[in-house]
Design goal:
This protein is an alpha+beta fold. The protein is about 15% helix and about 45% strand. The protein has seven helices and 21 strands. The C terminus is likely disordered.
């Protein structure tokens, strides 16, 4: 029986370049991240005959990945950001980032936000950049008394808010997503189905567990209304020997509690991590998918996992998918959001 082969489609500003690129492909890497950084596409092409054109920065690449027997899956659009031509032998290297991540989102501005809900902030920034906002209801109603955006880009500001409220913040295909980490739903509210992976599915793995980040609780400080002194709130245990203290001072007790709760959940998820390379690429996998594993050690198989980052690679070694997994904090991911202060109805 004929073995399936890797398949991909690539367009540049709408022009199909698949047949031109396929015989020249040295390697392709496509990384999808949960937040903090843009999804990236790296292409290395053989230009030993000198016939390749160097694409202009700002050109848009659209990529689909898959297999000859199952077809391809659209992985989105990417804007050419960096180009390098080197030799000999001559090769052309192209690096592109998520197409919806506009240049304007990286420009630093000065702005103060007063008495706004998180949903209102996300929607205003999305509208400013012609993006469609998608924010979970659990986060949308969170009230922020005051926050300054000081010499800070909209992208950096949204990333900071996402960290404070333990959320996924990403820009994909003209959508600005702001969802709770581990929430288990898509932007449209559809439930994400868990996937099961076995030891036999992979080429290599690396499991890591550490005690140094095993805090019993997190302390955050805030400005008490009408008082000069700071006050603090602790989420988790009160054991002073294992309390992590956040450096920032927040405007209200509710905001301090939310930040401490988010940090505690991040700490719990990072206590154990697993890097896993699948022998056969899975273009259907992406960040935030719940994962169950089998065939490893009991400590690995018994854990609930969450996809943090995905890297698809196509080259001489075929098509593989590398996963970065972290512990899934479900069901605490829903429970801890009750600490957030919401607008009264």
């Amino acid at each position: 029986m004929k073995q399936p082969t890797p398949e991909f489609h690539i367009t540049l500003d709408g022009r199909d370049l698949t047949t031109k690129i396929a015989p020249r492909l040295v390697s392709m890497g496509l990384s999808e991240s949960r937040s903090d950084e843009a999804d990236t596409l790296d292409l290395t092409l053989d230009d030993s005959d000198g016939k390749l054109e160097i694409p202009p920065r700002g050109a848009v690449l659209r990529v689909s990945l898959g297999w000859s027997d199952t077809g391809v899956i659209d992985k989105g659009s990417f804007t050419v950001d960096e180009v390098e031509h080197a030799g000999a032998p001559d090769v052309l290297t192209i690096r592109a980032r998520s197409a919806s991540m506009t240049k304007e989102m990286g420009e630093r501005i000065e702005k103060s936000w007063h008495g706004e809900t998180l949903g209102a902030i996300v929607r205003k920034i999305a509208g400013k950049h012609s993006l469609k906002p998608a924010i979970a209801d659990a986060l949308s109603k969170v009230l922020i008394a005051h926050i300054d955006q000081t010499h800070e880009s909209d992208m950096s500001f949204l990333t900071r808010l996402a960290k404070r409220y333990d959320a996924v913040m990403n820009v994909k295909d003209a959508n600005l997503l702001f969802m709770p980490i581990g929430h288990g739903t898509t932007a449209s509210g559809k439930k994400l189905e868990s996937i099961e992976l076995t030891r036999a599915s992979g080429d290599s793995h690396r499991y890591h567990v550490a005690e140094r980040e095993n805090y019993a609780g997190v302390r955050a400080h805030y400005h008490a209304t009408g008082r000069a002194k700071r006050k603090s709130v602790v989420v988790g245990g009160e054991n002073n020997h294992s309390i992590k203290v956040l450096p920032e001072t927040y405007a209200t007790e509710a905001e301090a509690r939310a930040a401490a709760s988010a940090e505690l959940n991040r700490t719990k998820r990072s206590q154990a991590t697993l890097d896993y390379t699948l022998a056969l690429g899975r273009p259907d996998l992406y960040p935030e998918l719940p994962v169950y594993l089998s065939g490893f050690k009991p400590q690995i198989d018994d854990e609930s996992w969450l996809v943090k980052r995905v890297k698809h690679s196509v080259g001489d070694g075929g098509f593989t998918t590398g996963l970065e997994l972290e512990m899934r904090d479900d069901p605490t991911s829903d429970r801890h959001r009750s600490h957030f202060r919401k607008v009264s109805k």
